[in-house]
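pls design
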């Protein structure tokens, strides 16, 4: 069934303390759980505990063995006392746990993932975030295979045991919900460091990586120290335990997990060196390390009352990690990339069958709501609060929130209330962002009146019905604007308008010369624009707007319009004059802001283009985008070459100016690869051979892949030989192959999955191959005969019984089909029906398939 937000009731029982003992064995781990329980609701006689895939051995109430009844959710104890000690013994099987939820083995190590509802796979418990207890955890395991025994909090004792085993006892002084519980046992290499907090406390930092990977851990550890310092400086938030541990594992369903004092990470977001990781990897590591660290306050000290409130911690923590990244690197580039994620993925979610507000009100499988909406739109909602309240007002609100709710499990509304109270600002209309799904469209009408020297701006907001909600209301939307004269002289007026009604008109006086206005500057709200400024107006914004993100956005709009025009006519195509001028100008100033120019020179992605249209002609759009790219390549052939040659770097370091140059040089390569001349092939080959780092190497491979150059195959063979034994690099190799648009893409996929390094049990590998195919190999996946859809479906039927969480993520491109033509929609529905009729479909996939049909 479905769970509803409106059905929330507080727990009838509290658990103040929990002692857990793990006798770790591959196939039969014995878990003993001792809880101190108190009845809160006296009318309640029975205690229902959650449990899943557990073998129950015995239950004792106050030391007396008791019988229980098994329920759909777990077990029921009847007629329990008002206060008692509950002891439960269960057996679990970590080795055969391929869902990677609860306790499982990754490579040789035991590890856990409990968020959202994985703890019930460890023991019977009140598996809900508003039940917070103090934990003591004893781990017992074979010493040789598991020299390290880790759990949350502080190590308080350890010792030897019989038969080559040893044990460790950990205690976490902070009460926490069970989703933050973690343990790790295994053999690792360890990096040590310390951080001295603002109040002078020494914190031990420990990073655990696979044997032989010490040199790849440095960047993560440095990032952690930066994040710790930043949170003190920016929010006055200090770390609260004596030790902070991060463990990298190869088998992990998502990015990472903020378990108290013991983060567990997908190794992809920990390990980096110049030879094996790209600039993007370095960036992601810094950002995910920071994200999990920031959760210590926004998530752990203050947690969620129930899972509908997930965005309370995720939206806020994503916003905080974005602020951190903006401070560490280039603020404009960080913002541009965030805007792309919103437009490519979140807008698509809003217009598909899984549409939900950032605080969902109905959930079948919670894992399906770790979504771009909850995370990224959630962060945009926090950003809007920041915009409306200003930097210091937002900080006042944060201080109030933390002061008021430290140690509690609270709601999104509690957060907004704190922001409201600290600033005496009415946010009642703003709250609608939490309950209303969908992407508002802002229609713009702008006119400059010479006689009155006035600029009149009319804004209308409208949110179309979504799959989950038919009736929509106006939202409180902060609309950033910048007035720019067509000549570039004088008035540069930037402000944020508060659009609260369906339609509002704004008049700006004393605008003596012809002017235009950029709207939604800096992506001030997660909205779409319905606004077609004249070419000259867009050009003025591109040239003269003060904000870099605004200039980028206008250039992307100019390019998008050219692509749409191309896609509508079939005849001879010529590069539009406006684009000639745009690219001429951009290439001329490439050296000033290389990364920004790189972003502006790159064509909008197919996904971004799709989101701007009601219906898409997929084939025509893909073709038009290619044609435009080829024209730009040829027209500026000399420029690309010259610029590329000027951009070569010294020895690799992950440092801002170098990163920016490499970014621009990658864009040049992507155009040069379109030229298909001996000279450019030579240049690509040389660039590959000369490269001393993964960023440049991957740029060559991607350029060759996108243009389907024969060179691709020979370089890929070389690459494979070099990196055969490196899991993370092989993921890149797999993804490059899977993303190749090629008539034989399906047999390519089959070959990849038969490769000796492929495994359906490893989520990174599965995402590299099937994820890249379904999300980014547009031609292959959307083949007209439906064979791409069938291929994915066959695979999902297999994957679903192994790892339903990963399967449910992979189906996303196949349920977002509303913009496609009838023929393709029909092909997709045939496959969705196959899934629907499958007897043992997981709840994860079932929820999505059923909504999509
Ligand atoms: N809280 C983790 C993070 O944001 C993600 C956990 C995701 N869990 C899940 N079941 N999908 O870093
Ligand atoms: Zn998070």
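designed seq:
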């Amino acid at each position: 069934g479905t769970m509803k937000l409106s059905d929330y009731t507080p727990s009838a029982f509290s658990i103040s303390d929990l002692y857990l003992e793990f006798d770790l064995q591959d196939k039969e781990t014995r878990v003993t759980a001792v809880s101190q329980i108190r009845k809160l609701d006296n009318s309640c006689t029975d205690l229902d505990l959650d449990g899943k895939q557990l073998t129950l051995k015995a239950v004792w109430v106050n030391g007396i063995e008791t019988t229980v009844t098994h329920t759909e959710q777990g077990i029921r104890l009847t007629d329990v006392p008002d206060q008692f000690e509950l002891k439960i013994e269960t057996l679990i099987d970590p080795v055969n746990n391929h869902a990677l939820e609860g306790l499982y083995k990754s490579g040789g190590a035991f590890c856990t993932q409990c968020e959202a509802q994985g703890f019930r796979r460890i023991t019977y418990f009140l598996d809900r975030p508003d039940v917070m207890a103090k934990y003591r955890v004893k781990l017992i395991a074979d010493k040789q295979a598991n020299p390290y025994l880790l759990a949350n909090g502080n190590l308080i004792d350890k010792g030897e045991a019989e038969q080559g085993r040893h044990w460790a006892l950990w205690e976490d002084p902070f009460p926490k919900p069970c989703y933050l519980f973690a343990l790790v046992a295994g053999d690792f290499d360890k990096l040590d460091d310390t951080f001295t907090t603002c109040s002078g406390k020494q914190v031990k930092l420990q990073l655990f990586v696979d044997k032989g990977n010490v040199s790849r851990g440095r960047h993560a550890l440095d990032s952690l120290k930066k994040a710790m310092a930043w949170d003190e400086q920016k929010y006055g938030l200090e770390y609260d335990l004596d030790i902070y541990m991060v463990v990298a594992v190869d088998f992990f369903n998502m990015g990472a997990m903020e378990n108290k004092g013991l983060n567990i990470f997908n190794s992809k977001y920990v390990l980096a060196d110049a030879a094996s990781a790209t600039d993007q990897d370095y960036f992601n590591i810094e950002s995910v390390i920071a994200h999990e660290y920031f959760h210590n306050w926004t998530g752990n000290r203050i947690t969620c009352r129930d899972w509908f409130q997930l965005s309370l911690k995720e939206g806020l923590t994503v916003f905080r990690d974005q602020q951190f990244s903006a401070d560490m690197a280039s603020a404009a580039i960080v913002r541009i990339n965030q805007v792309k994620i919103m437009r490519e993925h979140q807008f698509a979610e809003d217009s598909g069958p899984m549409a939900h507000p950032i605080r969902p009100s109905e959930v079948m499988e919670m894992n399906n709501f770790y979504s771009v909406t909850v995370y990224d739109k959630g962060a945009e909602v926090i950003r809007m609060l920041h915009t409306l309240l200003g930097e210091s007002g937002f900080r006042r609100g944060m201080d109030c929130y933390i002061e008021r709710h430290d140690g509690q499990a609270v709601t999104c509304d509690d957060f907004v209330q704190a922001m409201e109270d600290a600033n005496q600002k009415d946010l009642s209309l703003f709250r609608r962002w939490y309950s209303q799904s969908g992407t508002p469209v802002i229609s713009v009408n702008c006119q400059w009146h010479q006689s009155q020297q006035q600029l009149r701006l009319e804004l209308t907001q409208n949110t179309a019905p979504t799959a989950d909600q038919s009736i929509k209301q106006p939202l409180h939307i902060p609309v950033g604007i910048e007035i720019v004269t067509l000549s570039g002289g004088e008035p540069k007026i930037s402000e944020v308008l508060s659009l609260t009604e369906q339609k509002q008109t704004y008049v700006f006086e004393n605008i003596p010369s012809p002017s235009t206005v950029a709207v939604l500057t800096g992506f001030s709200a997660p909205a779409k624009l319905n606004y077609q400024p004249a070419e000259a107006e867009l050009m003025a914004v591109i040239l003269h707007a003060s904000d870099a993100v605004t200039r980028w956005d206008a250039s992307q709009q100019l390019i998008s319009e050219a692509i749409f025009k191309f896609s509508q006519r079939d005849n001879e195509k010529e590069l539009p004059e406006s684009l000639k001028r745009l690219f001429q100008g951009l290439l001329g100033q490439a050296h000033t802001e290389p990364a920004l120019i790189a972003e502006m020179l790159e064509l909008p992605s197919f996904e971004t283009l799709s989101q701007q249209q009601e219906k898409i002609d997929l084939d025509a759009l893909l073709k038009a985008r290619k044609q435009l790219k080829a024209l730009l390549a040829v027209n500026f052939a000399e420029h690309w070459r010259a610029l590329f040659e000027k951009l070569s770097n010294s020895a690799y370091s992950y440092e801002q100016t170098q990163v920016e140059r490499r970014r621009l040089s990658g864009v040049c390569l992507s155009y040069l690869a379109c030229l298909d001349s001996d000279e450019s092939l030579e240049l690509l080959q040389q660039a590959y051979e000369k490269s001393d780092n993964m960023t440049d190497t991957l740029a060559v491979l991607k350029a060759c892949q996108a243009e389907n150059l024969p060179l691709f195959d020979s370089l890929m063979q070389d690459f494979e030989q070099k990196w055969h034994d490196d899991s993370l690099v092989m993921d890149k190799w797999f993804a490059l192959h899977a993303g190749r648009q090629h008539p034989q893409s399906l047999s390519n996929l089959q070959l990849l999955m038969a490769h000796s390094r492929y495994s359906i049990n490893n989520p990174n590998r599965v995402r590299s191959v099937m994820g890249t195919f379904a999300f980014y190999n547009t031609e292959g996946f959307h083949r007209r005969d439906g064979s791409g859809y069938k291929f994915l479906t066959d695979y999902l039927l297999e994957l679903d019984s192994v790892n339903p969480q990963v399967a449910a993520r992979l189906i996303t491109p196949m349920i977002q089909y509303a913009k496609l033509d009838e023929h393709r929609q029909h092909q997709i529905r045939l496959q969705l029906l196959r899934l629907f009729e499958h007897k043992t479909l997981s709840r994860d996939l079932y929820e999505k398939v059923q909504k999509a049909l």
